[in-house]
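<goal> How does this chain fold?
<body> The protein record starts here
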Amino acid sequence: MQLQINSLEAAYERVISLSNSSTKRIIIGLVGMPGAGKSTLSTYLMKKLPKETTALVPMDGFHMSNAQLSQLGRSERKGAPDTFNSNAYADLIELINSVPKKEVRFPIFHRELDESIEDEGVIYPDTKIVLTEGNYLLLDEDEWPRSQKLLNESWFVDVNNNRRMARLVARHIKYGKSPEAAHAWAHGTDQRNAELIEATRIRADVIVYLD
């Protein structure tokens, strides 16, 4: 049976409980449709949790480069599962899990650049809590299942769909799309991806409601 969490504070308390019950590093996956509030949740947790021993690994850092997407003919579907390097992401989660006393670096995606910067993020040897957030952590294809089995818990972030769509359109406008293009992308590419992600919620250990 899936655990339900209904507030940001309860989410924080759950992380603390998991960390206190383990002597090892814990990894929590935050999953949800575009605009569901994954970043809202992860930002809140990062502010509340001990800064010296907590790290955030966004899946967005594993976007294929724009050059790769152009070469593969996938530029117009950027954000779909096959526009990410799921193998490199799974390799990173395996490394974080198996080598806790080694500094580990990972790429960070910058929306204003629409590209990732290699080795910008870092997991330090004394990091105890790792939050990793992204759309496709619970997919059952490509290399995503390899990282799933290493998560202490997977959380599916849920929200009112109208609010989610409004956030998405506003985000696209903020980063340069016209209102018309933002609406088309949110209701087209983003929505197709959202339907795929929604189908994975059954695999989550926890459902987090942020309405």
